[in-house]
Amino acid sequence: MNEFNLIEKYFNWGKLNCDALGVGDDCALISIDSGYQLATSVDTLIENVHFPRDTSPADIAYKALSVNLSDLAAMGAIPKYFTLALTLPEFDKHWLESFSTSLKSLAKKYQIDLLGGDTTKGSLSITINVTGIVPHNKALLRSSAKVDDIIFVSNTIGDAALAWHQIQQGEQPNQRLLTHFNRPEPQIKLGQSLAGIANACIDISDGLEQDLNHILKHSKVGAKINLNNIPLSQSVAAYVKKTDDWCLPLAGGDDYQLCFTIAPNKIELIQVLKKELDIQLSAIGTITKDLDFKRLGEFDQKCSAYQHF
After folding, report:
1. Most C-beta atoms within 10 A of its C-beta, which of 96, 183, 189, 274?
2. What is the chain's pLDDT, residue by residue, as a tens digit (309 residues)?
3. What is the domain-level CATH number for residue 165?
4. Among residues 45, 43, 224, which one has the least CA distance to residue 151?
5. Final residue of a domain: which of 135, 167, 183?
6. 48 within a domain of the structure (yes/no)
7. What global pTM score does this model have?
8. 222: enclosing H helix or E strand
9. Are residues 89 and 196 in the same domain?
């Protein structure tokens, strides 16, 4: 099967949105309503770097799109379109069917159209570029945290990192941990709901501390967090208690939760969001005037987050 037949068979699904021209031409054409800005991001997943070799194609597809959607969530954007660059070591009908079905299902869930991309032969890697829209000047940024803001995170932290740690140790993670690692759920609704409430926001991909530090750097502020307030699942809490290894939840990464800051007078709005979205939102610290990053707790070891180079 040649490249064009492969694309037509597995990735030409038809469009969910009518304001774009997608698969079939040299470029996608996108129309955008006045009053909106485009938000776009790109991520690459590589075998044995971002997922183990024996990961199912359905899980690979889900994670590849989900981690990109998480970037849109961090900006409060509405998902609209994505492109796919797929590098395969060989043509495998069953692998492609499973990958395509999973990708299509998640795309439909978040109403995001596949507009095109590229296929080539080589070591397995998946690159997805997502595009969303956000009302003009309403995007959530990293650079807008204010002194005395309260720092929040969504759901629990460290589950995916624990799964990956156990896999590397030759252990079998439980299904909950595996789901967090293989199929992270992008916080799209939360991101959109934080518009007008949060001052700054980022998704947690490379580790809570490192990503929070991006907010601090861009906003020119500091932070003080309380380790005891970081939301941990039972599995991660048990691991930390046994090993005293706070670096796993602080720097393990792959959470794809949102870390955001809000003014103290908007706490009641967060309580409303928790009920409306049925989501766990935990206050873990505050933004400070000095530029230091401080932890409250008995763990003072320096943690190293994931670095690509």
Report:
1. 96
2. 666 667 677 677 666 665 655 555 666 777 788 899 999 999 999 998 888 888 999 999 999 999 999 999 999 999 999 999 999 999 889 999 999 999 999 999 999 999 888 889 999 999 999 999 999 999 999 999 999 999 999 999 999 999 999 999 999 999 999 999 999 999 999 999 999 999 999 999 999 999 999 999 999 999 999 999 999 999 999 999 999 999 999 999 999 999 999 999 999 999 999 999 999 999 999 999 998 899 988 777 888 776 665
3. 3.90.650.10
4. 224
5. 135
6. yes
7. 0.91
8. strand 222-226
9. no
